[in-house]
């Protein structure tokens, strides 16, 4: 999908694309940190009708909700493109030795060679989690590495 980026002097940036139904949709990223989603009219390409506004925090929440179901798909696509690279999803079970502890305590990369690239907590996606990231039962870890490394991460977190 093509996304056009337009500088709006003094305002910020506008990103726009045409959806499957032929509607021209825009997202105005304001310098203030707020966002506005707009829908363009059919007659005048510069006439936009605001659909809704979001604060920076609200926009972040919406992007996490929209991105959560797709993150595993994107890593799966990547692993098909790179021979020997695998992606896996590992749930932190209630009895896991790392539930309620920071990710770094697991030493997952050192012990398995696989990297934990995201933590999915409900609808929230925490990309590139640091070693201080606290893990909770029910979190789903997205790991990238060899097949053996992914199995090692699963054994580590599921006991």
TrEMBL record:
Name of the protein in question: Cation:proton antiporter regulatory subunit
Organism: Actinocorallia libanotica
SUPFAM superfamilies: TrkA C-terminal domain-like
PROSITE patterns per the UniProt record, alphabetical: RCK_C (PS51202)
Domain RCK C-terminal: residue ranges: 73-159
Highest taxon listed in the record's lineage: Bacteria
Pfam families given in the database record: KhtT_N, TrkA_C
């Amino acid at each position: 999908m093509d996304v056009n980026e337009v500088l709006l002097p003094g305002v910020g940036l506008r990103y726009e694309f045409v959806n499957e139904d032929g509607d021209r949709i825009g997202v105005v990223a304001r310098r203030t940190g707020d966002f506005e989603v707009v829908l363009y009219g059919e007659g005048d390409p510069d006439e936009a009708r605001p659909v809704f506004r979001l604060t920076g925090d609200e926009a972040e929440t919406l992007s996490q909700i929209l991105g959560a179901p797709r993150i595993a798909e994107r890593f799966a696509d990547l692993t098909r493109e790179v021979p020997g690279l695998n992606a896996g999803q590992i749930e932190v079970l209630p009895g896991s030795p790392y539930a309620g502890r920071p990710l770094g305590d697991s030493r997952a990369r050192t012990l398995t060679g696989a990297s934990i690239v995201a933590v999915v907590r409900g609808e929230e996606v925490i990309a590139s989690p640091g070693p201080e990231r606290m893990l909770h039962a029910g979190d789903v870890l997205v790991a990238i590495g060899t097949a053996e490394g992914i199995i090692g991460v699963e054994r580590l977190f599921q006991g």
